[in-house]
């Protein structure tokens, strides 16, 4: 059962980071939850082998970020990696003016996805259309900013600490904050600090992993039931194991406040079952099958 929280370095894609760790740990299959662009660093959950089936259940509704922005500049990608335009005559806002704008974004707001984003148009990611010079339609979504703080400001740079909902574009958030005070900006740096209850204290950097022996490496690998700790556990009898693994519903003492449960026989994790009225516990994703 294998999941690792990687502290991704800048300059490589999430897929490249995944392949490096997969090779170092010698797993046949791997997948990650929550993509980070090459410009970004921070928390990247990587699932291995049979655990990849459970990525869909990983809690990622609330995410934390630290980001730094550069005022007086704009770009087609909203970050430092795009085509830059310098606005020489733009005003220099005060800290109070910028902070007042920042605080206005606490709560829900309608955010327009950037043209260079992974949102799809007829199955094609928007960034592929943008790179090809093709028009990208406007795509918006309601996002929520749970907490946001202006942590540093020394013109032309300012930094934010953000707790937000899944699907929030931090570079767009910075651009929208600047726009409210009639300024331009681009994102210079981004670090993902948390996903749900997991944070950078739970992570490890690749240079550490690659220099350890196999036994030492495994100290950073977590069991899937540790990662899915939001789900209650239920233990079933030995006579129910084959039925569950063969896809049949079973009777079990469950917490009826929850639909999905982690199913165990003794200490052996079998998979995820869902309570269905009139049927009992129905297998949804099996670990060993």
String of helices and strands? EHEEEEEHEEEHEEHEEHHHEHEEE
Number of helices: 8
The helical percent reads 10-25%
- In the CATH scheme, the class of the largest domain would be Alpha Beta
Strand content: 35-45%
User: What is the CATH T-level topology of the largest domain?
Assistant: Pseudouridine synthase
- Return residue spans where pLDDT drops below 50 for at least 5 consecutive residues: none
Structural class: alpha+beta
Name of the CATH architecture of the largest domain? 2-Layer Sandwich
The figure for the number of domains is 3
Shape summary = elongated
**First and last CA, distance:** 13 Å
CATH superfamily of the largest domain: Pseudouridine synthase
**Mean of all residue-level pLDDT scores:** 89
Annotation, overall tally of beta strands: 17
Query: Which sheet architecture does the biggest sheet show?
Result: 9 strands, mixed
Radius of gyration: 22 Å
Task: Write up what this structure looks like.
The protein is of the alpha+beta class. The protein folds into 3 domains: 3-57 and 200-226, Pseudouridine synthase (2-Layer Sandwich), CATH 3.30.2350; 62-195, 2-Layer Sandwich (Pseudouridine synthase); 231-286, Archaeosine Trna-guanine Transglycosylase, Chain: A, domain 4, CATH 2.30.130. The chain is 20% helix and 37% strand. The protein contains 8 helices and 17 strands. The chain has helices at 14-25, 95-103, 126-131, 170-180, 206-210, 214-217, 224-227, 238-245, and strands at 3-8, 30-32, 40-48, 62-71, 73-75, 84-86, 107-112, 120-121, 124-125, 140-154, 157-165, 185-195, 198-199, 233-235, 260-265, 268-276, 280-286. The strands form 4 sheets. Strands 1, 2, 3, 4, 7, 10, 11, 12 and 13 form a 9-stranded mixed β-sheet that branches. Strands 14-15-16-17 form a 4-stranded mixed β-sheet, covered by helices on one side. Strand 15 (260-265) and strand 16 (268-276) form a beta hairpin. The two termini are 13 Å apart. The mean pLDDT is 89.
